[in-house]
Write a structure and sequence with these properties.
The chain is mainly beta. It is built from four helices and 59 strands. The radius of gyration is 39 Å and the shape is elongated. Residues 1-19, 631-636, 667-673, 684-689, 697-724 and 748-766 have low confidence and may be disordered.
Length: 766
């Protein structure tokens, strides 16, 4: 027996189910819905065909779970364009299906939701949008907000999505299973899957387009997004969009507490596809965007354009190759900032997954490049930005990738900051280009106003040869930085090391100051015990700036080799402070050892500059420090020929009783000073006096001091200028007991109180 409440609920559910797809009767040939006996498959027929396009119009369009909305179109239809003219959101919990290779457009300006079980079964591309209309090349519009103005007589190719006074959101939670593999919303290989609306959220949702194209576009109201037909379906253009909204990829928590990651994926056994993401703020939290190629065809690009990109909680953006094709490139345009934050520990496998931007090769193809254009780049708390050539983890014995690592190009006009360790495992935040095989490590180019590497942060282009073939060693990487200032603090590090083969090269161009603090390093070391390889080259150019370290904080600049020759360190700066250039012999003496394993500058508490061979004392590198302050020719003056012998001007005064006389130094000035530090200062008013001009007393001058030659610093030529005043470098006492300032520090015989005392006693006894 069924009570009234239960029967009412059943009645409501039945009517709700039947009323999910309702045509609106606004077309010349209206859409028709024909459900099967169980209301499981909703056949959609009718519609108005024009020049290869088939138009459908509905007052409501939603699909229940386990239900299929089946667009039963003829084979000659290229585009199925569907609009929703009512005021309800399209809630897609089941499947949308179409025949043959037709592309399917779903336009609902009220918003669209794809639930956890939503899926696609179409042969062409799929585009879901909350635009108000689809625009065509002949000037006509298929409008969801003004359906009464529809004119379909001249319709041709779709060229744009027009947003009017609103831009509603799109949410995707789909994790639909295909062949025991979660694909979510999926199109056929080589096709386009696009979500274009206001705010776009993937909450545990997945988008899959093998070898195809995924487009995520989040725009504000009153904007036009261009459509262009391509071999992969559709490409979207945003050059006419003035304002954008937000895109989020976040996990969805299930009933058992597990998190389901959101994924945007164009990976393929043939070739990876392209991914374009465009929004005001793009945030990834525990989610992935990736394009992998496993075949011999080159992968395609991932492009993210936004004001702010935030990648956190173990989210990863990856463009990689595992086969013979080259990986695509990863490019980010973020007018405000790019933030890579932290890592996450994966429960069950105990792995630490960093928040990551990566271009990788483990195959024969080359890895892709990463390009970042922004105002501020932050890589914090164990996050990473990396290009690399590495081994395939699941097939370690096949060991080695044959492709080269890609390059990194960073332009951040305000700052780049790489700082901190992960909370789990203590992994360094890093920006790196490296190789684990005999190919080439990448090149890192950074152009920024301010570079900060601190708290264990790292920039590196390491080479780790794990192959036994030493006849074909990897090509080392390069780091090139141009910055207003560079700070390395608390074990911050820039290195171009190699475990076997030559170390890499580091070039730092600094406008103002390069400062190393608290155990930080710049290193181009090479080799380990038993392996060859010369140290790399380090060049620091700060012609108008300073290179500074705190002497006792053990911050080092090194280009050492274990078995090969030391590298070359060249520093051009206005001044260098705090560093001590050291040879291998210096370290042997300071550390009291000749053991190569122990001849490490890091074992000294001083801040050192070294370029030598740890194993071979005859294979030292070079350290060249070029600073104007230590130019021996600067400030040379010609001294008078009849200099006073300063040694003869020092006398020991005696009292008549033979005791040493106590000397005194009295300083007076306008207003006077207190005669003793223990006495109070006297008022300046009481002692104020005007300056007076003294007559020159030639007897108090050293003969010839007026005759001098100074060096003109502009032309480096000598100029005779009798009136020029030379800065005093010392003083002497002339024959009359007067203090005379001189241009050259005199050689002074130290005062010996024992001898002076003896002299006084002799005079007293006489």
């Amino acid at each position: 027996m069924i009570d009234m409440a239960t029967s009412t609920a059943i009645f409501f559910y039945t009517n709700c189910a039947v009323a999910q797809i309702i045509p609106d009767n606004t077309l010349p040939i209206n859409s028709l819905r024909e459900p099967d006996a169980n209301n499981i498959i909703i056949n959609i027929t009718g519609g108005t065909p024009v020049n290869g396009n088939l138009f459908h119009s509905f007052e409501h369009f939603s699909v229940l779970r386990d239900q299929t909305a089946y667009f039963n179109n003829p084979h000659n239809i290229q585009n199925i364009i569907t609009r929703v003219t009512g005021n309800s959101i399209s809630n897609i919990q089941g499947t949308i299906k179409a025949n043959h290779t037709a592309n399917l457009f779903l336009i609902n300006p009220n918003g669209i939701i794809f639930g956890p079980n939503a899926s696609l079964q179409i042969g062409g591309s799929f585009l879901a949008s909350t635009a108000s209309s689809v625009n065509f090349a002949d000037g006509t519009k298929f409008s969801a907000t003004e359906p009464q103005t529809t004119s379909l007589l001249r319709v041709s190719i779709p060229i744009g999505l027009q947003f009017s006074t609103s831009a509603a959101s799109i949410t995707n939670q789909s994790q639909a299973i295909n062949n025991e593999y979660s694909v979510g919303l999926q199109v056929k290989p080589g096709k386009t899957l696009a979500l274009v609306g206001g705010d776009i959220t993937l909450k545990g949702g997945r988008l899959t387009a093998e070898s195809g194209r995924i487009e995520l576009g989040s725009v504000a109201s009153n904007n036009l997004v261009r459509l262009k037909a391509t071999e992969q379906g559709w490409a979207l253009g945003y050059d006419g969009v003035k304002n954008f909204q937000n895109i989020q990829l976040i996990p969805r928590t299930t009933s058992n507490g597990a998190d389901i990651r959101s994924v945007v994926d164009t990976s393929s056994s043939d070739m990876g596809g392209s991914i374009q993401v465009r929004g005001k703020i793009v945030r990834l939290r525990g989610s992935d965007i990736r394009s992998f190629t496993f075949g011999n065809t080159n992968g395609q690009n991932i492009t993210i354009t936004t004001e702010k990109l935030i990648v956190q909680d173990g989210s990863q953006v990856q463009n990689s190759t595992f086969g013979g094709g080259n990986a695509g490139n990863l490019t980010v345009y973020a007018s405000e900032s790019v933030e890579l934050l932290g890592s996450v520990k994966i429960i069950g496998i105990q792995n630490i997954v960093p928040s990551l931007l990566e271009a990788l090769t483990t195959g024969q193809g080359n890895g892709g490049d990463i390009t970042i254009n922004t105002s501020k780049l932050s890589i914090l708390d164990g996050a990473r930005l990396t290009v690399s050539a590495t081994l395939r983890i699941e097939e370690p014995q096949s060991i080695l990738a044959q492709g080269n690592a890609g390059n990194i190009q960073i332009k951040a006009w305000e700052s780049v900051e790489i700082a901190g360790l992960s909370t789990e495992g203590g992994q360094s935040s890093r920006l790196s280009a490296s190789t684990l095989n005999n190919t080439s490590a990448g090149i890192v180019n950074i152009n920024t106003g301010k570079l900060i590497v601190r708290d264990g942060g790292l920039i590196n282009v390491d080479v780790f040869n794990i192959s036994e073939d030493t006849s074909n060693l990897a090509t080392p990487g390069q780091i090139n930085v141009t910055a207003g200032s560079i700070l390395l603090d608390n074990q911050g590090e820039i290195n171009a090391r190699s475990t076997s083969g030559r170390g890499g090269n580091i070039t730092l161009n600094v406008r103002d100051v390069l400062l190393l603090r608290r155990g930080s390093q710049i290193s181009a070391n090479a080799g380990t015990e038993g392996t060859g390889g010369d140290g790399g080259n380090i060049t620091i150019n700060a012609p108008n700036g300073f290179v500074v370290a705190v002497p006792s904080e053990n911050s080092d600049i090194t280009a050492n080799a274990f078995f090969g020759s030391g590298g070359r360190i060249t520093i051009n700066a206005s001044s260098i402070f705090g560093f001590v250039p050291r040879t291998r012999a210096d370290l042997e003496r300071e550390l009291n050892t000749t053991n190569p394993e122990e001849l490490r500058p890091s074992r000294l508490q001083t801040s050192d500059i070294t370029a030598f061979s740890l194993q071979n004392p005859f294979l030292s590198g070079t350290v060249e420090l070029n600073t104007p302050d230590v130019d021996p020719s600067k400030g040379i003056v010609e001294l008078p020929a009849n200099l006073i012998d300063a040694a003869q001007q020092i006398i020991a005064g005696c009292n008549p009783d033979g005791k040493l006389a106590r000397g005194s130094l009295v300083a007076t000035g306008r207003g006077g000073i207190a005669p003793s530090p223990r006495e109070p200062l006297m008022s300046n008013d009481a002692l104020a006096a005007d300056w007076i001009t003294l007559k020159p007393e030639r007897g108090h001058r050293v003969d010839g001091v007026e005759k001098k030659v100074v060096i003109d610093e502009q032309s480096h030529t000598s100029v005779r200028n009798p009136a020029e005043i030379v800065k005093a470098q010392g003083w002497v006492i002339d024959a009359n007991g007067n203090v005379v300032l001189v241009a050259q520090p005199p050689t002074v015989t130290r005062y010996n109180p024992v001898l002076a005392s003896a002299s006084c006693l002799e005079k007293s006894s006489q």
